[in-house]
Amino acid sequence: MRTNRLEAISDGVLAIIITIMVLELKVPTGHHLSDLIHTTGVGLLTYLLSFLYVGIYWNNHHHMFHLVRRVSGAALWANLALLFCLSLLPFTTAWLSESHYDRTPVIVYGLNLLAAAVAYLILQTTIIRQEGDESPLRQAVGSDVKAKVSNGLLLAGVLSAVAITPNGHVGVWIALACYIGVAIIWIIPDRRIDRLVHQHEA
Predict the structure, then answer these.
(1) 118-135: b or e for each residue (b if 16 or more CB lie within 10 Å)?
(2) Where do the domains of the chain lie?
(3) How does pLDDT run across 120-147, given as a tens digit for each residue?
(4) Alpha carbon of 42 to those of 25, 64, 170: distances in Å?
């Protein structure tokens, strides 16, 4: 089957996720910059991080399906698994913000990010198996070093929050640094994939 409906539902779900997250931001009680920082500051920073992740997934998803002509039933379910993981982001983002980066919410947020990364990898692998090793997507992905590094960082972040100074904040700040680092890695566009997308469209 063609990819149109899969892309449509994915775009819709991701748009709703972003909308829900921004609605969770608290409106300042006062009218000064200090009121904004005190009331919304932490939530705004957390929203920004989660927004970047959703944007990264939308960008990669968009590029991936430019290289795919048809999808199987397995790919549809793998895509739904990815959307399920991403749909939890408004909840874990809100909990992270309201706790002011307490240890347990930081761990849960990291697990959410890791689950989404694994779900995306499963979707990608499912499509490559369907289309074969000579497919444009397989050529674009290559050895997928970027994904391996980012997944390793997410796992390291979660483990840091779990194992390092459980009663302190060192492990938490290491975890947050790992989550931010992964976002920075993926903000930088992969020119090889862009080039293959243009070649495939031509």
Answers:
(1) ebbbbbbebbbeebeeeb
(2) 4-201
(3) 999 999 988 887 777 777 777 777 788 8
(4) 10, 33, 18
